[in-house]
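quick one: magnesium ion bound model?
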Amino acid sequence: MSVTDVPVLAIDDLVIDIGGNRIVDHVSLSLGSGRILAIVGESGCGKSLTALSVLGLLPKAARITGGEIRLNGRDLLPLGEAALSDIRGNEATIIFQEPVASLNPLMRVGEQVEEALRLHRGLSANAARGEAIAMMARVGIPDASRRARQYPFELSGGMCQRIMIAAALICRPALLIADEPTTALDVTIQAQILELMRDLRGDVGSAIVLITHDMGVVADLADDVCVMYGGRIVESGPVEPIFAAPRHPYTKLLLATIPTLQGQRKMTLRTIEGMVPSAESWPDGCRFRTRCPLADEACVATPPLADVGPGHAAACWHSADVEALA
Amino acid sequence: MSAVASPRPHPRQGFGLRRWWPLAIVALVVLAAIFAPWLAPYDPNQQNLIGRLKPPGTVSRAFHYWLGSDELGRDVLSRIIYGSRVSLVVAFASVILSGTVGTTLGMIAAYRRGWTETVVMRVVDVFLSIPAVLLAIITVAVLGPSLVNVILVLALTRWPRYARIAYSQTLSVATMPYVRLAALMGAGATRVLFRHVLPNIIGAVSVVATLEFGLMVLFEAGLSFLGLGVQPPTASWGSMLSTGRNYVATAWWVATLPGLCLFVLVLAVNLTGDAVRDRLDPRFR
Ligand SMILES: Nc1ncnc2c1ncn2[C@@H]1O[C@H](COP(=O)(O)OP(=O)(O)O)[C@@H](O)[C@H]1O
Ligand SMILES: [Mg+2]
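yep, here:
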């Protein structure tokens, strides 16, 4: 697409409430064509809900109480179920953590890759078959035409995730949301799948929202990062400056959790103290202040997400002091 | 089998006759029903009043009664062969009708939930709380006995069995990520149910269906036995049992032989159920 000034995905001031708790609090992000945006944070930070809201897949209890979501410029929130199901699997699609459970055990995997084509493009079985096999080969499934006739139980977890990716990309969606796509896979397979996603974005041209709690994955794959904590974006911007000089203590601590291998010796493996508090017990003001080494009385007021560099923003009163943090 | 753990639920068992003889018997009965006019030695309704209640092997006038004759001198073998038609037609038709209706309703109830679920499953409860035989007898008595009415009545009384199994199976399958995913990706309810849910529950449904098939053979026999099924002189195993019971003391073959056929067919059908279930699941192949 040559329309570079309209972002593929633009979320603006999104607010999601569940039972009186503000689970997603004024989240804004934007993603250009062919780019990869990582949303990072520990479990329970609201990453999945933010992503699910794009496809209209929020759980029943969740209510969007403010903001706007635009896909290729089109406002998604007013759309009904029928319009949304035209978009899902076609213009925007999602892959989940558990690839094996995401596949119908009694359907040949080739048919499952074709499904979106048949649904959205109305292709005949024969035409769809050819495209499905080509896409399966593209996502690195050897001997795709034979594999297409196999059932999920005949394939490994990594193969199943490749099948899911093929099924997700078969309609060449503008946006692919990958919610912890490699968490359920073992490390070597993880690396292969990430490698594949990196290859594919050039090839298929989909913009990718990659949800993860693993900073290592972000470094490997993403162009831009949004760090979320307690339902808010605490830091956002391009990968390089954020990795070089994080401006929010939470980002700094997340970065410190990446294990660094030097020869045989594992240099540092720091885990952040404490747990993400549950939504009911998020503190006023800065939500990270209960675990933050820099917290003081200023943090009782909510820090705004303020620019700290080109395209780089952080929500911390002490963002200038983060660098000095051990 | 060896003690080595297998990744498949059951390793494939013997593939030969040991596993498939029940199906062979069912096939034999089906063939007998289809080719009855060529297989039956005599017209099943042709009477021979001189040769009444003759034991198996008797020769009387133009008849050679391989399996004896009944109270009107009709050939029991020919009547058993023709009688299989009634049993099979009634059982097949009623199982397919009730199975289709019940499975569809059960799937819809479990998938739609809400008031659809409440209505369908309460109706199921009501039907299952009425003794099916009683319901069948009353309905046939009102509608009048005929082959078509027997089929309709059996379909009407038996669909709740399928609805209940389809309902409970669908409830669990519908929570699977692949079903939710298909729905989210724009597949309509019909497509989700018939493409994703049905293949996953058809094994359980077909086990019920084979049990029901045997039961339907017995129900038809029961209704015919009571005079509410096919009408004389049409041969059916049930009506043969019914009239034959008057002569059990003197001519055991008139009732016993069709009864034996009934027993073997129902047993074979029930045993076929397991084999069918296994064939429908690729993991068992
Ligand atoms: N269906 C739901 N009902 C109630 N609360 C929910 C539901 N789904 C998620 N939440 C809450 O929303 C918060 C964010 O969840 P989520 O977006 O799944 O986090 P993440 O993906 O970052 O791990 C969590 O605190 C969780 O307790
Ligand atoms: Mg999540």
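The radius of gyration of chain A is 20 Å.
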